[in-house]
Description:
The chain is of the alpha/beta class.
Amino acid sequence: xxxxxxxxxxxxxxxxxxxxxxxxxxxxxxxxxxxxxxxxxxxxxxxxxxxxxxxxxxxxxxxxxxxxxxxxxxxxxxxxxxxxxxxxxxxxxxxxxxxxxxxxxxxxxxxxxxxxxxxxxxxxxxxxxxxxxxxxxxxxxxxxxxxxxxxxxxxxxxxxxxxxxxxxxxxxxxxxxxxxxxxxxx
Length: 186
């Protein structure tokens, strides 16, 4: 409330200096405490992403050799499930991340994985891509994603599989599937 009152009297307080922002800091304790206005530089946030590759070269060659290369485009995305999961009674429920692969042409879901913690288990995306190729016996020539993190999870593995990985502003079929998933189970 104090800051709002001060800004009403002097709105220059809120005007950020280039690369610097208003920070109010409490100095001292108890009744002797005073609040001091300072303008401090804030570091630019640079996100970091995990990327994974297949370490078993022999299994990778066998997978590529036994699979048919398709002139097809698959979409892949990671997003939170709207249905909480509780693994064990008494534990706190959580919202898992869904990793979904769909065919861009048919709109069919090809595969789906629930991932408890995407920050520590994002490698499961390439595991699911591999198992999808094994199950279908097919490798698409293109995989399209719309999120930077999903792109980087799959980047190295797609290079190994000779799949063109594209980053797009908007996927074509997965948004519809996501919308349908919201309303199931309620």
